[in-house]
Amino acid sequence: xxxxxxxxxxxxxAFAVFAYVVMDGFDLGIGILxxxxxxxPERDTAMNSIAPVWxxxxxxxxxxxxxxxxxxxxAYAVVLPALYAPLVAMLLALVFxxxxxxxxxxDPAHRQAWDVAFQGGSFVAAFxxxxxxxxxxxxxxxxxxxxxxxxxxxLSPFSLLTGLSVVAGYALLGACWLILKTEAGLxxxxxxxxxxxxxxxxxxxxxxxxxxxxxETAYFERWLTxxxxxxxxxxxxxxxxxxxxxxxxxxxxxxGLPFVLTLFIFFLCFTGLGISMWPYIVPESITxxxxxxxxxxxxxxxxxxxxTVPLILGYTGWAYWVFRGKVKADGYHG
Length: 334
What we know:
This protein has 334 residues and is mostly helical. It has a domain at 5-200 and 291-322. Helices cover 75% and strands 3% of the residues. It has 15 helices and 4 strands. It has helices spanning 5-32, 41-48, 54-57, 59-71, 73-82, 84-106, 111-138, 157-181, 184-211, 217-224, 228-232, 234-252, 257-277, 288-291, 295-322; strands at 142-143, 146-147, 280-282, 286-287. α1 (5-32) packs antiparallel against α7, α4 crosses α5 (73-82) and α12 runs antiparallel to α13 (257-277). The radius of gyration is 20 Å and the shape is globular. The N and C termini lie far apart (52 Å).
């Protein structure tokens, strides 16, 4: 029996994108919340909590983008010109944020300006990721095998909603990371932030979820018609239950559980996105099989992925293990 390598590659790309979202999401979230922390030890501690891992987290973005180009070249050729503006803005923001991260410590005389740049870069990167997601989900104009839409097709009320939703979700992840990694005043401040970011994120998830079925007839049929609704109902039910558990864990004073539950909610949202889009990589225009490269090319790349993905997982896990425990303003972990 022949193995469908196209499906395997679709899951590899999806895994890389999700790994990027959850790993880079919390450090972008800390940047988004940066001006909520007083200048001095609290800001230094917040930044030091992500210092050992933030640049490694972006490895998954490279894997996702590079894998899309190699495994699904047609999708890459269609999606990239459709989303040039938000993707270029995202990349520039990530570069600017990275420069600010480094120069904040090396140029104390202008630290305030670098702090603003760090927060601004984090916000723009997160917002543009959400905008790109919304633009893809709402559909891209395709004629033949090429993008046929305009320069501003990506900009819509729905894409702006998804952009703001991603900002809220990343901010919640950042707050929960600080609950896990810090102590005393900063931890209390992060817990208070999570207390209102949680309901805000849930409201954003609900708004996007309610709007999505009305973007395409296929979305509506998957989510709101019988008997399909029976198969997809566990996703919103689990989101509601996880949100309730999150709120209880926050009130109970748990340190690690709010972060884990937030990650699980992100996973459920990602699952819902997959349900909506499957089997299309460009919704209602190009399926994963239409966009896939040759089988020989998939086999060749799969050998490389079988080596590199475990290596990335290994050194990422090792980095998080080495820098486990609480973080101090001087960068000490323990």
